[in-house]
Amino acid sequence: MQASSQEQYIEFGIEQEQYAIRIQDIHEIIKIQEITAIPNVTDYVKGVINLRGRIVPVISLRCLFGSEEAEYTKSSRIVVIHHLEEAVGIIVDRVNKVTTFTDIQPPPERVGGVQGSFFTGIGLAESGLVGILRLDEVLLHE
Amino acid sequence: MLSEYREVFLEELEEQLQLMDEEILKLEREEDSSRIVQALFRAAHTLKGSSAAMGFDIMKQLTHEMEQLLDLVRSGKRTVTGVLIDRLFQALDHLKLLKLDIVDGGGGAGIDISACVRQLQSFANGTEDAEAAETVELPEIEEITGYAETGAAKAKPVLALNYRLKASECLDQGRQVNWISVRISSSCPIKGARAFVIQSSLAELGEVLYTQPDLEDLEEQAEGATEILYLHAGDLGQEELKAFTLALMDVEAVLVEAVSFEEIELVQPSTVQTAAKTAGPDEGSVQTSGKAKSQTIRVSVERLEHLMNLVGELVIDQTRIHQVERTQRRRFSDDSVEELGHISDHLSRIIGDLQESVMKTRMLPIEQLFNRFPRMVRDLSRDLGKEIELVIEGKDTELDRTLIEEIADPLIHLIRNAVDHGIEDPGVRTANGKPAKGTLTIRAAHEDNQVVIYVEDDGAGIHAEKIRASAIAKGVISPEEASYLSEMESVDLIFSPGFSTAAVVSEVSGRGVGMDIVKSHIEKLNGLIEIHTTVGKGTTFKIKLPLTLAIIEGLLVKLAAQTFIIPMSNISEIVRVTREDIVTVRGQSVILLRNQVIPVAWIHEYFQLPKSSAAKQNISLVIVGSAEKRLALVVDELIGNQEIVIKSLGSYIGKVTGIAGGTILGDGSVALIMEIAGIIAKMGGKTVS
C-alpha cells in the first residue's frame, strides 16, 4: 500500500462522502448530458449516452451505494472510466480535485453504510477519509 | 508466402469441387456427355496438379485415379453408367473430406481413401487395357543405365540474348554455369509439378537461369519419361551437382555439362534462331492479358467491416448536418443557409452512394449457397425413392456474406422437409393425377430493399387438421387451445419447439427440431417467414431478410417522450384505428385485420413508460412480425423512417430482452432499437383467435 502513495487520484463526492479513482483509469470527465433510459435493466444502470459517436452506458453511484436519487445539479458530472476495453460513465454529485494520499488503510467491513468490498482502501487526506473505489467490484456488482 | 498459396489453392479447390458436383449431376442426366467428361477430366487434372504442388499427396493420389478413369471414359474405353456416376460422387465426397481436413490445417492424412481408390481402379481395370499399360511401363525403367551416354548427344537449345547475358555474368563472377539434363521417371504422375520442385531445389544451390522446355508448358505434355534441361549457375562442381540432383525424388538420370563459350556468346547467332525464340516473350504477354481478365483483389473481411463502420459514422453525421440545416433555415433565410442546404443535399447523395458501394463489397450472389442444393436434392430423392425436379431461380441475387452463411442451415432444413414430407412418392402422385416427378423451386429475389427467398414444392401441402391433432398428442397445445386456432395458425404450429409432423421419424428429416431451428435462425437475422399451403397442391415457404445487418432501415416512433426504432424488416404494415376497433378476447386486446386476429400490445408497460395513448381516440398501430408471429404495437407517434447504424450497447449492459441495440440520431441523442423477436416472446407469445 505504501507504493501507491505517489499515485494520483481524482477525488469526487456523493452526498457528504468523498471517493476517489486512480487517474489512469479515468478516460474523461463530462457534464451531465441527455441519458437514454434502457428498460428492464438493473436500477443503478441509468441508461446510455452518446460520447462523440460512441454509445456509453452510465451508472449512478448514488443508487449503487443505496442513497436516495437526487436531481442532477450544476456540479453533477459523469466520470468516464475505461474498464475492460469499454467506456462506462459513473454519475457523481461533484468532482473535487486531483489528489495523492500520504497513507492508505485497508478498508473496514463497511464504509459509511456501503459494503467494504467496493473499496481497495481508505485514503487519508487533509479533508478527511476518502474511499478509493475498486472498479472491478463497482462495475460488476450484481 | 506458403499460406498465401494455400488460400489460392483452397479457393481453386472449392471452385473445382463445385464444378465437378455440377458436371457429375449433368452427366447423370446425360446431356452431351463427351463435353462433360472432358470438363470433369480437366477439373481432376487441375486439382491433381495443384494438390501435388502444395504437397497434399493423398488428394493428388485420388485425383490421379479420377483422372485415369475419366481418361478411359473420354477415349471411349468405358461408358457412362450409373455405377460410374456413383463412383465419381464417392470420390468427390472424399475430396470434400480431404478439403475440410486441409482447411483445418491437416494434410488429409487422416482420411482413408484406399477403398475409394480401389473402387475407382477396379472400375477402370474392367478390361485388359489398363493392365497392358502397366506392362508397357516396365522396359522403360530398365533403360536408365544407358541414359548417360545417349543423353550426352542431346542438343542444347540456342539461348536468347538475355539468358546469354545472365550466364556470362555468372561466369564473370566466378560461378560455375552448367547444363543439367534431368530425366523424370515415367511413373511420376505429375511431371510438371516435379519439374518445379527440382527447379526450386536447384535454386537453393544457386540460380536456375533457364529451362527447356518451359516448365509452364510441361504439365500438358507429361506422357512417358520426361527430360528437362536446366541451365544452372552455382558454386558446386559438376560431380556434386549430379549427386545432389540424382538424390531428388522421381529423378531417373542426370547429366551435368559445363556450358560452352559459344553458347553464351553475346553475338546474335542468326536471325532464324532468334525468330524461333521470340515465342518466349509472346507467351508472357498472353499470360498477363489472361490475368487482366479477372480484376479482383482479396481484401480481409475485417477491413471491409471497418470501412462499413466508418460509413456508418458518416451516415450519422450526415443526418446531423441535415438537422442543423433545417433549424438554421427556420431561423434565417440568407444565401449561406441556402448554400448549406445544397451542400447537405450533395453530401447525402454521395454518402448514400458510398454506403451502397461499401455494402456491395460485402455482397455475394446467393449462387454459392444455391449451388449446393442440386446434389443434396439428388441424394435425398434417391434415398427416399422420389422423383424430383429442382428448379433454381435468381441465383445472382446478392446479399450480405454473413447472411448467406446464416441462412444456409434454415434453407437446408426447409429443402429436406420439402423433399421428405412435402413431395409425395411417385405412385401417390400419379394416383392423385399429378405428374410422377415432383417440382421443388428455390427462388431468390430482391423486393423493396429486402431479400426474399422462396422454397416451393408441388407436394401434398400441410393438413391443418393433422397438425392440430399431432400438436395435441405431443402436448404442444391443449385441445381447448387447439379449438380456437384458425387453419393458418394451426399450420404455424410446425414452428413450435418439439414438433414433428412425420408419423415415422425418417433419417432425412423429422427429428422434430427442424422447423423450430429454422424459426430461431430467421428471428436472429431479423427476418420473417410465412407459409402458404394448399392441401394437395403444395407448400411455399417465404423468407424475408434484410439486405445487410450493419445498417438497417428503421421506423422512428415515439413512446411517451422517448424515441424508439423499429427495424423496417420486421414491419408488415402500419394502420391507424379507433379505440373501438381494439377488442378484448379472453383478456387479451386484439385487432381484426383482414380476417386475421392480431394481438395488440401496449409496450409502454413493458418499457416502463407512461401509457399516454390510452386516452386517445385514434391509435397508430405498427404491425410487426418475427418469423411467423405477428403483433400490433401501439405507438404514440410515428416520426418517419431513416437509415440507421446499429450499435451495440456494449458488454457492460449486455443482452436486454426487447432491445437489439442503439443508434445515434441526427440530434445527437441515443435511440434504442427494438428487438421484435424478444418483444413478441414477452408480450404476444401466443397467437390468439
From TrEMBL, chain A:
Q: Which domain of life is it from?
A: Bacteria
Q: Which residues form the CheW-like domain?
A: 6-142
Q: Signal sequence span per UniProt?
A: none
One matching Pfam family: CheW
Which InterPro entries does the protein's record reference? CheW, CheW-like_dom_sf, CheW-lke_dom
Mind telling me what this protein is named?
Answer: Chemotaxis protein CheW
Automatic annotation (TrEMBL), chain B:
Sequence ranges assigned to domain Histidine kinase in this UniProt record: 344-549
Modification type Phosphohistidine: residues: 45
PROSITE patterns in the cross-refs: CHEW, HIS_KIN, HPT
**Mind listing the UniProt keywords for this protein, alphabetically?**
ATP-binding, Chemotaxis, Cytoplasm, Kinase, Nucleotide-binding, Phosphoprotein, Transferase, Two-component regulatory system
The main location is: cytoplasm
Task: Please state every residue range assigned to the domain named CheW-like.
Answer: 551-685
Q: Where in the cell is it found?
A: Cytoplasm
| Reaction(s) the record says it catalyses | ATP + protein L-histidine = ADP + protein N-phospho-L-histidine
Q: What is this protein called?
A: Chemotaxis protein CheA
Q: Which organism is it from?
A: Paenibacillus vini
